[in-house]
Amino acid sequence: MSKPSDLVQGTLDLLILKILALEPLHGWAIGLRLTQVSGDVLQVSDGSLYPALHKLEQEGWITAEWKPSENNRRAKYYSLTRLGRKELEKETANWTRLSEAITQVVRLEEA
Amino acid sequence: MRPEHWIYTVPLRLRSLFRRTQVEQELDEELRYHLERKIEENVTQGLPPEEARYAALGAMGGLDQRKEQCRDLRRVAGVEHLIQDLRYGLRMLAKSPGFTVVAVLTLALGIGANTAIFSIVNAVLLRPLPLPHGERVSSIQVTPALAGDTTGPASLVQFCAWRVNNTKFDLLAAVRGLRGQISGKEAPEEIRLLQVSPAFQELAGLRLYLGRGFVEDDFRAGAPKVCLISYRLWLRRYSEDRSIVGSVLHLDSEATVIIGVLSRDSAFPDAENDLWTVLRLGLDQQTQRSLDVYGRLNSGVSAQDAEARLADVTVRAESELPEWLRTRRVTVTLIREQLVSDEHTLLLTLGGIAACILLICCANMSNLLLARHLKREREMALRASLGATRGRLVRQLLTETLILCSAGAAVGFVAGGGLLSMSHDLLSDSRFKGLITIGYQVVDARIAAFTVLLLIFTTVLFGLVPSLHFTRADLSEALKSAPRGQARGRGRSPISRYLIAMELAIAFILLTGTGLLVRSFVGLLSEDRGYVVDHLLTARLPIPSGNSVTPTRRKQFFRELIDESERMPDVVSVGIVTGLPLGGLNARMTLQRPGQPFDPENLPWVGINCVNPDYFKSMGVRLVKGRTFDARDDENGMRVAVVNESLQRQFWPGRDAIGQEIMAGIRIVGIVNDIRQEALDTRQGPTFYLPFEQREGLAAAPNFLLVRTKGDPKAFIPTLKEVVGAADHHQPLVDIRTMEEVLSRSVMQRRLLTALMTGFAALAVVLSIVGIYGVLSYLVSNRTREIGIRMCLGAPRREVLILLARQLSSSVVAGLFGGLTVSLVAAGVLSRWLFAI
Lengths: 111, 837
Known about the structure:
The complex is a heterodimer. Chain A is built from 4 helices and 3 strands, in the order αβααββα. Chain A is an alpha+beta fold. Chain A is globular and about 55 Å long. Chain B is an alpha+beta fold. In chain B, 51% of the residues lie in helices and 16% in strands. Chain B contains 25 helices and 22 strands. In chain B, the strands form 3 sheets. In chain B, strands 14, 15, 16, 17, 18, 19 and 20 form a 7-stranded mixed sheet that branches. The longest helix of chain B is centred in the middle third of the chain and has 38 residues, at 489-526. Chain B is elongated, with a radius of gyration of 38 Å. Chain A binds chain B through residues 26-28, 45-48, 50-51, 54-55, 57-60, 63, 66, 69, 73-76, 81-83, and chain B through 4-5, 7-9, 12, 26, 29-31, 33-34, 37-38, 56, 59-62, 65-66, 69-70, 73-75.
């Protein structure tokens, strides 16, 4: 699961929302955090992160703000909106349901 | 959920649209930040700076592609492109103002004419009638068994029978239209009044401006007389005095209490009425057919159902009557259908004109655009080779067309106003004309929608076709070829040729139609009318109200009036007559034809006019044989009559009518020529004249006064008023017009239609000429080189001209032939307005 294209459709959105739910971050940091948290299992290519971010922004789930970053340069920080939080809950529930279902199927003992 | 969503998204979209530079900068900065971090990372991993940079860019997968992806996510791409296209389009149009002006005017004409004409169609066909449940209101008329009598009003007896046995109508009302005289503190005045039955108020949806409407008690026998007055009368006669409600006016000398003023829009059954009162009929009037009956059908009941039911009821009610007094037929017609059938020809003609104009405009626009697009072939080819898709190019071209169309529609909409303002006069004299309102004050959603639809239609029709046609062309070919395409007209000219053929055909149709109308109009005016219209003043003298008027007093009044007027220096002669030629009010009666067995069902109808001896001289009616009336023919003289040629022909074919008895004791002493009595385009039926002195009773008594003057007849109006006032100061004097005005009023609709057609035909011809010129010059410019070579090689000038002329000859021939064919059909539609062709 090294390439984002392998991510289940829509999962990238869920991951971004989840990460932003913890604290506002800029694009670069989101990529780092994702790799970090997933223990290097999930990596997002540099290119595909930004279209995803812009899409979420246009949906109204996240909002952006320019702030000085840790290395003292201006960076675009994204944070979750109220709508985004709702969306995250919904997506999480969906994901849980789906992954549990898949787990069930995978665990079936061959008779 | 949705509104909250918008709180976040709407500002974003707006920002993307209107703060584009800032948004772009931010995108750039955001990605650059990422890139720099990546480079730093790569450098710390030991790569040389240059390589670190390439690696970072590679990881991004192309900076510009990513940017474009992000832009697409803003969801305003469509709008952005549109704005770009609009800007570009406006710039291109501003660059060629000549083209733009011609195009906008052409379109303004097409769209304006269509919008104006549609608003007439809308008013007649589509707009709800100004009546509650107007779609169910119908008019009920009867045709008596007696032949010759026309379909018309019903009698009270019939109405009562219908009402008692009514199952198909939820409202059934009768009205009787009359003229009455009101007097009071103000001068006496003749007005139109309507006596109404109880249900009428609800059926017509009469709304009150002041006071109260009729209540049940008002209709009881012996109740005090009450009336409602029109807003117009209130304005004119009572100067908007609000205290008028409750006061008394004298209606035909009977004290009547004004209980209310109706609102301005009371137009049913016509808009001319000034006073409403309760329907009251004397015993002797109960079988007279004087009532206009209207019914509102129960929902779901068809006019046919109701007609069958009423026919049943009528047959049962009349079983006691002798056969020839019975009713032959009861007709129930929905008001809407009546309107539509009255205006049928007008709508068809106008619709045809509108379609023709629109087609011509579209054809011209297509040609203009085609030629224009071709000039821009290289530009398009360049854009295509730089990666613009065909869809994008078509969209660009369509946007330009849309700009043109919108401008055209806007101009046309305004220009259409002129046409609209005269369109009400175009309507024929339908009974329910008052229900139709046309004008910009009634522009409704339907008209707006129509204009927009038309706009889209024209844009697509002459924008899309040339655009597709053009962008399909092999664009690389265009780039390779010389700046001005050489002899490449072959592939494209067919479209232009079809358009030319179509334009010519349409112009031909309009010209033919106009020719027919103009010829018939001129023919109508130059036709021998049988009388002389110049130097003739006419006026109507309605019988004054009140019980004091007796036939004797009326005769005395006329005698005094005639004597007094003739004494005036400027007067040649004075006539009085029952029905003025072309002035309406024609009296008719049935007459037994001599030597035929008495057959009450087939009695011929003949016109009757009571006149004074000078009438023939004043009107200019020519004597054919015998004599007209003179001083001998008074109450004591022998009873005499004058007949017209038509009566002579029908009653005594091949024999001399003079000396014959037309009615018991009345001998014919003279024959006069037939005149145009009822309308300019109808021949006068059999008619006879009686001296008014010998006529008893008031039926068919003279109504009109004619004064033949030496000078301008209008100059005589003040004197006439004085003379009439002196003879009887209660006598109203109305409709004072010169005979020329009467004549011109009678052909108003025809005149307008002819003018309209002429205007449109002229425009069509001009447009077609412009169109042909455009196409031809394009074709020629395409072959300039070829022509040059031919001439160098010694081709005579004449041959080159023939060569070029041949290019369009087939289209011209086809167009004219097509036009001729359709004209033959169109002439059928017009036939109602055609006269003596």
